[in-house]
Write the structure tokens for this entry.
Amino acid sequence: MAELGHEVIGIDVDPEKVAALQAARAPFYEPGLPELLERTMATGRLRFTTDMAEAAGSAVHFVCVGTPQKRGEFAADMKYVDSAVDSLLPHVAAGELVIGKSTVPVGTAARLAAKVADKEPGAALAWNPEFLREGHAVEDTLTPDRLVYGVPGGQGTTEGKAAKALLDEVYATPLKRGTPLIVTDYQTAELVKVAANSFLATKISFINAMAELCEKVNADVTQLADAIGHDDRIGRKFLNAGLGFGGGCLPKDIRAFMARAGELGADQTLTFLREVDSINMRRRIRMVDLAREVCDGSLIGKRVAVLGAAFKPLSDDIRDSPALNVAAQIRLQGGDVVLTDPAALDNARKAVPDISYADTVEEAVRGADVVLLLTEWKEYRDLEPATISGLVKEKRILDGRNALDPGRWRAAGWTYRALGRPRA
Ligand code: UGA
């Protein structure tokens, strides 16, 4: 927002995070963010504080807090959204706009709008879902592929028009560049977000179901994806078969969506998402089984090198990470796991302390009975068999992300196995 020319105050309850940000240090790994922080803070348009009172006087107030899965339930935990809104409202004045960005169960915006109306009848609330991807957050924010506004009463009402006008000022730069804009009601805007993530999750699980079948008949899921992806009604994106989806969004969003559908009396509508979820979780089990299979039927005492801990490349996020989950399961089955990752080692160490960690690929693979590629960082995709052939005990590699060229590895004398690709 500061890069787009606005004056911005970032507020968080965590003093450590605020101190880091105030020193222009990003509290997580995100390409391009450190440079952007430094540049925008130098303009004086961006600062950070823990003091909610400093929100007073802002034209718009974005609420961007997380909605993680509740413990032991599918539903989203709304406590952060509610507490952020409750502590913000005393500082909101007439004519100002509270804008929700968090991914929420449909119906939340209407509930929060009532709170706003109760505290400050002259203020309003809009819902403006966020579609950025981790690892591409900066470009996705500065040049979004679409904008969605959920405004009070829809775009036809006076309140709706006033909210739209304020949002148009906020997004003047991307709008000038021609970014598609959909102005709608609260409930549609809320649904757009969870529908998009559910569709993406479904696409991944579809190709992973094909991968399961490919393995049964020795077919190649990567060629299958290329071939169906050429049909532009299908498209090749998000058809990469492998370990499946993780992270702080897709897994919890499909679960929260199912929970909400149930509350709305539409519990049969989204039962297919249960299948999407279980296909996804089966991929992890399949990977562990494959590791055991190539290690002659037992993982006990086997040295297993794991490349990747983050839920995807260009991120240090390990929330619901398929890679870390597989590493932990192999440990439970007696494997001696050594894991490496270019960005997520510190986070992984805290979450799974009972495996070993290495700073480099070379260190991780030394003496390995099997090497598992579980997060497709570029440096792992580009790995040459010759670099590690002399270091491992057994030349066996399992490609959990279909990121390597099987021919190259086999030509170098390796046993190469992948999810959904022919055995040899
Ligand atoms: C996802 C959505 O892509 C964003 O549009 C959305 O804004 C965000 O959630 C959110 O709700 O905040 P993100 O979680 O950053 O973004 O990650 P994705 O790029 O969607 O990847 C999710 C997972 O799917 C990763 O574990 C990735 O490895 C996996 N994946 C992705 C596959 O297994 N195959 C693919 O073909 C693509």
